[in-house]
Write a structure and sequence with these properties.
By secondary structure, the chain is α/β, with parallel strands linked by helices. The protein is built from 13 helices and 14 strands.
Length: 371
């Protein structure tokens, strides 16, 4: 006959309830003690005499005593608006070096679209090797603002302007063939950077953003972040093995309505100061490297004599840069060279003035860039 539950004898457990209460109390006290220990750590003060506990309540509100020898803290002032003021530098003493060792160059310009196309780049490299050229000029940053390579520059990483093309093997290949390799970068024309941060924009007097005829936007030539960005890019390209950096779009747009800047120059806005100071910073940054810094000038700055408006002071450029690249054509090549050489500070004019043309100059110029 099976047992029913009420027929089963169960002994009385006299200590079960008290024991449970005791264990709960011990656990609560232990957890509380641990929590209190970590909570009070913020009120521990350590000094040469050991550690003391200073609770926030029950004491007078007074500044703590400072160790002897430390200065008394200055009072805190209310925040005020600050306007950055820029003093115009003097370029009379600019002389980045002598250019006696420069030799004439016969270059082929390779656009950024070609640089980023592996098969097209290979064909261009082959043309440089077999076409009688002594130099290849690779466009590594065009007016869109997109870089051809994966840059580690702080601004490039912050605003996603990098590309993904690795040209180090191409540079080595051309060097082994005895060719010079230059990198060209657009300086102040940069739409991509402004799409991420419009505070870098050069603006007209009415506040609108300055835009070039081809639709590209213009960076503020006074902006320190812009200057640092361009300098960082030039240093990276030099480290990659480029023999020369060519600064394109290093000029100031011209407009009758005037411009506004991120700084307030003491003596008024001066395009020559804005442009030349940027170029000087880049040139000085690469002064201890084996990479030369050159500039691609606008023909109007040379022919029309409006360097004061475009910022391209040819006399300063000659002292600051290794070579001056100038878009021209056969009919005016001789006169362009004559205008440029008038302000030259020495060196071989055939090596330092490089006409940029669509075909090899008929006049037999020793230096030229095709493209």
């Amino acid at each position: 006959m099976p047992y029913r539950p009420k027929d089963i004898y169960r002994g009385r457990r006299k200590f079960r309830v008290p024991l449970s209460i005791l264990l709960f109390a011990v656990t609560f006290l232990l957890a509380g003690s641990i929590g209190m220990f970590f909570f009070l750590q913020q009120y521990m003060v350590y000094d040469a005499d050991g550690a003391t506990l200073q609770l926030p309540f029950g004491r007078e509100d007074q500044a703590p005593d400072l160790p002897e020898g430390l200065p008394t803290p200055e009072p805190t002032f209310e925040p005020v608006e600050v306007q950055v003021v820029w003093e115009n530098p003097d370029f009379e003493d600019v002389d980045m070096g002598t250019w006696d060792k420069l030799k004439p160059v016969q270059g082929l310009f390779i656009s950024q679209n070609t640089v980023q196309d592996a098969s097209a780049l290979a064909a261009s490299v082959s043309a440089v090797k077999s076409g009688g050229y002594s130099m290849a000029v690779l466009e590594m940053k065009n007016r869109t603002g997109r870089l051809a390579w994966a840059s580690e520059a702080e601004t490039a990483r912050a605003y996603l302007t990098s590309g993904a093309t690795d040209v180090t093997a191409v540079i080595e290949d051309l060097h082994q063939a005895g060719k010079t390799v230059a990198a060209q970068i657009s300086c102040f024309a940069d739409s991509l950077l402004l799409q991420h941060n419009w505070s870098f924009a050069l603006r007209y007097a009415d506040g609108s953003v300055c835009q070039n005829d081809d639709g590209s936007y213009w960076l503020d030539p006074y902006d320190q972040t812009v200057r640092t960005y361009l300098t960082d890019l030039a240093l990276e390209l030099a480290a990659m093995g480029f023999d020369e950096i060519i600064l394109a779009d290093l000029y100031h747009p011209v407009s009758e309505q005037g411009f506004t800047y991120s700084v307030t120059p003491v003596t008024g806005a001066d395009p020559v100061v804005a442009v030349c100071q940027t170029g000087r910073r880049i040139a000085e940054a690469l002064e201890d490297t084996d990479t030369a810094v050159s500039v691609r000038i606008n023909a109007d700055s040379l022919r029309s004599g409006n360097g004061a408006q475009t910022g391209q002071d040819i006399a300063v450029f000659w002292r600051m840069f290794a070579r001056l690249y100038c878009p021209t054509y056969n009919e005016v090549l001789a006169s362009d060279k004559e205008l440029a050489v008038e302000k030259s500070n020495g060196g071989d004019a055939e090596a330092r003035f490089v006409p940029v043309t669509g075909v090899i100059p008929e006049e037999g110029s020793k230096s030229y860039l095709i493209g």
